[in-house]
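Same chain as my last thread, 67 residues:
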Amino acid sequence: MPLFWKPYKSDVTDFIETLKAKKPALEAEQRAGRALLWDKQVDRDAQAEDAGSRVPQQPYVYQTGPK
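reply #2:
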C-alpha cells in the first residue's frame, strides 16, 4: 500500500454527502414523505373481510363455462 493511499469514494457517495451537507433537513423530509405514503396502520379486520369475500377464479379465465 502506498504511503499516500486514500480510500476510494464513489461519485454517488460524494454527491449524497455534499447534498446532505447543503441541506441538513433532507433526511427528515425523506422520513416525513415515507410516513405519508408508506408507513400506514393496517386494518387486519378489513383485510380478513376482503380476503373472505373473494370469488374463486376459474383456472382458464377466458372459458365461459364447463363444456
